[in-house]
Amino acid sequence: MSQDQYTLKDIAKVLNLSPSTVSRALRDSHEISEETKRLVLEYATKVNYRANPLARGLKERKSYSIGIVVSEIANNFFSQVIDGIESVAYHKNYQVVISQTNESAERERFHVEHFYSRSTDGLLMAMSSESSDNSYLESLMERGMPIVFFDRIPKQVKSHQVITDNKRAAYESVQFLVKKGCKRIAMLSSSKKLSNSQERLEGFKLGLIAQHLEFDENLVQYCEYGGLKQSEIDLAISRFAELDYDGIFLSGDKLTTGYLQALRKYPKLAKKPIEIVGFTNSNLVDIFSPKITAVRQSAFEMGKKAAELLIEQIESRGKEVDFKTVLLPVELIEAE
């Protein structure tokens, strides 16, 4: 028999196991011993066994596909989250299908309902900046659609959630700026609707309070689309140019790169000795100009954890779910 013709039943016969045991071993089921999993995986690798997803899906009434909904795939943070998701999905024999909303609530709903209509097994979502009505998501979840939210989460929706410790990240960013001698600290934020924007603003305020500094609303500028449109960052910078500040906290990946790009249009502002701390998962942060202190999120780990929770929920359908909120740390990396 040629290697590419091996079936699950063939492996079971050679190893003197039942087909169901081999199937569960290949899916890394907790019901199967580690020794049995090792034997099955070694033999499956030896004969180059590949599962037939169509046959398997028809038998189990599953598509073995996961939908991912993010605002922008090109965003450094989201691309790294997707890498984490795919690392788990591939190991579990799930395909992933990725869609982007470009921060549009209308597009977001279109993609979600499309995934549902195509019998996608579950969704991983980061909300768009325009989203405010979550009723359709709750309706789909009540009909049995597993959804795990990450990074940007909807309020008052019962689900698994994997998020960054945003309050602490913003708080520690302010403490760092104060240690650098800053006394008037500005903030460039994304949409007020987003959960992570709200948490970062709260942490920013708490950081100021801890240092006995006054919160000045004029020193906070908002970008409704989180830097997806450079024009909104340019407008924020034009307003900052009229203000007196010696440090700034940039609360998103696109906001950080967009801020640095916008500074080129305001050479006087660019020449000021302003300390910059900004969220970014870019691998090119060392060549940013001016230099910044990066707030790096656990993006890959976020994707892995979200995928694990989703697949666990998919494969335990019918059982009551104990929803979890996973809080991941950030790392401040000071410019050399």
TrEMBL record:
The keyword Transcription is assigned to this record: yes
Listed InterPro entries: HTH_LacI, Lambda_DNA-bd_dom_sf, Peripla_BP_I, SBP_2_dom
SMART domains in UniProt: HTH_LACI
Keyword Nucleus: no
Domain HTH lacI-type: 6-60
Molecular function GO terms recorded: DNA-binding transcription factor activity; transcription cis-regulatory region binding
Family matches, as Pfam families: LacI, Peripla_BP_4
PROSITE patterns registered for this protein in UniProt: HTH_LACI_2 (PS50932)
Keywords: DNA-binding, Transcription, Transcription regulation
Protein name as catalogued: Substrate-binding domain-containing protein
Species name: Sphingobacterium zhuxiongii
